Amino acid sequence: MPEFATPPISPFAIQFDAEAATLTPEGPTLTRRMSALDGLFKDHDAWQQAVADGDPVVYSVQSTPVPEVDRELPQSITSIEAGTTAGEFWMTKGHQHPNHQGEIYLALHGTGGLLMFDGTETQWIDMVPGTIGYIPPGWAHRSVNVGADPYKFLAVYPGGAGHDYGWVLEHGMGKRAYAVTDGFELREF
Ligand SMILES: O=P(O)(O)OC[C@H]1O[C@](O)(CO)[C@@H](O)[C@@H]1O
Ligand SMILES: [Fe+2]
């Protein structure tokens, strides 16, 4: 085996339960409440009110024990709760990969969307169970729950890709998903 600065972890099996949306063995779980989404919803006052009104959990991410380091290939399942803030559907923070690497998402449950922005162009992929959304290098990405159930998806990404959240705060995502009578509508800022 070649010499690496950080030794890769040993091979292991992951039990993937698509119905329950779980990965076993479990690694770290991350929970993001409304307060973690500062500066991301269009209506800042409504966001602040939601934080004051109990700061609900917006999404959680369950990982396997694969570390986020170069050459590894971590996986996680994200569950976004159903909800809106001033009409804007609940979503992940969204990020850019600092060193521009690709990623895939596989939708498992509910109705979601994969919003991508390269700084100029916005793309949206409807995500329903069975859809794989491909995120090419250089596209910031955010997942949105546009349904009435939790939206859950599996992510597989390069361990060295990193998460640049500042990029999204600075550039935005080009469009936002709002609730309308028969579903959702994408609106520009
Ligand atoms: O990192 P964010 O924008 O909070 O979104 C969470 C999701 O994105 C990932 O960071 C992978 O891109 C996963 O941890 C999870 O699927
Ligand atoms: Fe990513």
From TrEMBL:
InterPro entries in the record: G6P_isomerase_prok (IPR010551), GPI/OXD (IPR051610), RmlC-like_jellyroll (IPR014710), RmlC_Cupin_sf (IPR011051)
Pfam families assigned to the protein according to its UniProt record, in alphabetical order: GPI (PF06560)
CDD domains for this protein: cupin_PGI
Involved pathway(s): Carbohydrate degradation; glycolysis; D-glyceraldehyde 3-phosphate and glycerone phosphate from D-glucose: step 2/4
UniProt catalytic activity: alpha-D-glucose 6-phosphate = beta-D-fructose 6-phosphate
Biological process, per Gene Ontology: gluconeogenesis; glycolytic process
Top EC class, one word: isomerase
GO-annotated cellular components: cytoplasm
Domain Glucose-6-phosphate isomerase prokaryote: 32-183
GO molecular function: glucose-6-phosphate isomerase activity; metal ion binding
UniProt-listed SUPFAM superfamilies: RmlC-like cupins
Sorted UniProt keywords: Gluconeogenesis, Glycolysis, Isomerase, Metal-binding
Enzyme Commission number(s): 5.3.1.9
The family this protein is said to belong to: Belongs to the archaeal-type GPI family.
Descriptive protein name: glucose-6-phosphate isomerase
Species whose genome carries this gene: Agrococcus casei LMG 22410
